[in-house]
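Lab meeting minutes (informal)
Scribe: AK
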Amino acid sequence: MSLPSRTIFRFAPSPNGLLHLGHAYSALYTQHWARAPGGVFVLRIEDIDIARCRPEFVEAVFVDLQWLGLEWSEPVRRQSEHFSDYLAAADALRSKGLLYPCFCSRAEIRAASDGRVDPDGAPIYPGTCRHLSGGERLEKLESGVPVQWRLDMGQALEEKKEFVIREAMPDPSCAVIERPAEPGRWGDVVIVRKDTPTSYHLSVVVDDAIQGTTHVTRGMDLYASTDIHVVLQKLMDLPSPVYTHHRLIVGADAEKLSKSKGSESLAGLRALGIAPEDIRAQFSF
């Protein structure tokens, strides 16, 4: 797959709550750098979590971004409408022997963990189900036990010896450098979840390829996950965008803003009489 001749930047929120100032900064940052080289700003709705993502939150994304003065190309890709794309990608990895079924619960993983954690602070999977025989796997699959599919990272590292991240820091105007990825620190990550036929890692890699994304701009909280994304891109022979990770917007407690913490939403700020120009000025956009 060849890269498009023009630059394509994407902003991809998850509609599992209302957007806050952190999202506003990321969206404005992405649009700014998309426009700088005369590129395209793409909006994508990452709603694979069908249990938490709701239609009213999707509509709120459009309202908030339009209020900020953002414009994007159409149509907007909604991940929940493209599960077949992710199923096909997972099947391709599975056919190469790169995925294996895992039947462990979170409690079982914590209990079996040796204390090692991944960059997100979660216990690294000890590989329990990787060692199951073919008969044991088939028996569990046929019994209907909830299953998720993990990447056999050891096998992946054997398949492709070198994984490189193309990076422009601190902003997309900087020279692109290549640095080695460190996928081994993640262990055997989940590629297909128990409750949905994909995962964040798989869906964003597939979507970026389908949409021709040339530049990914996102917060520093996702910096380490780029390891996984370049691994999947190389295993599936997909192009790898240039990555830029920007600063995070923090609250009075010096912690990053988040939906789970109940950070003030853009809708709430709008109700208080805050103007979009105020937010743009705050972030120098």
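Next up, CB showed the second protein from the same session:
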Amino acid sequence: MTIDLQLNSRVLIQGVDNPLALAAIGRMQTYGTKIAGIVSAGQGGQTLGDLPVFDLVEDAQNVLGPIETSLIFVSAYHVLDAALEAIAAGIPQLIIITRGVPPLDTIRLLRQASVTKTLILGSGSAGIIIPDRLLLGIYQPQLYSPGKVAIISRNQSLTAEIASELNQADLGQSIVIHIGSDPLVGSSCRLWLEWLQSDPLTESIVLVGDICWDSEAATAAYLLTQQGKPVVAYLAGIHASTPHPLTDAAIVLSHTLSKPIYHADTIQQRLETYKRAKIPVAKKIGQIPSLLKKLVSRG
């Protein structure tokens, strides 16, 4: 799969039956995102502001032409159908904003996406923002400013807090990528780390994760074998004795029932892997800017 974040990309919105979608559309349009239209079953032929509404993705493409990215806001149990419809229409990038997608639905979706080489961000993703250039998602854009630090995050609330620290340190952000907060997500930290190595806007990278997720161990192991742009990590829940994913109660419960609780020795193993990879792990969010400056000055 390839990542294509052209500033003139044409965007489709799937699902507008919740206030989150409506607010996001307004912010994205104000930011300059080229939203071409909306798909909402049963509302085809109507308009939302200046945006045409269609019943099907195929109908939208027949009228609007090629679409590069679809943002999916439909309810959790309709995400699979909406995403498969977008994939069948040939849309190469999907950002799934909806949280709590059933795991089996996600597995089916990712299998199909692997066949078609479709990029999936999420589920439970806030999307992507390139400050002052591109907004694809539900970010509050005023919290982000242009700079040279990329953020790859698993935790939406911490992302804004870290961006604020970077802003205060006059570092800013080159791009912010929230890969999703659900237990199963599409694109991985590793994919985005590889892409950022050739991103001319990015000088250094902050990884924001949750110590409970298996992907954090995989990311640490990958970094152990690579030498690239400076990376600083911040792992939420690192000081908890029996940490759980920082998400809603249903996912916490399902995670506890389906997977073993991580104990201190497992956490320590992950920290040791980051240490061997020479990736500093910030103990507090406020340490991130100084760690980044130190790494960049060494380079």
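CB comment: Residues 84 and 109 are 7 Å apart (CA to CA).
No objections, moving on.
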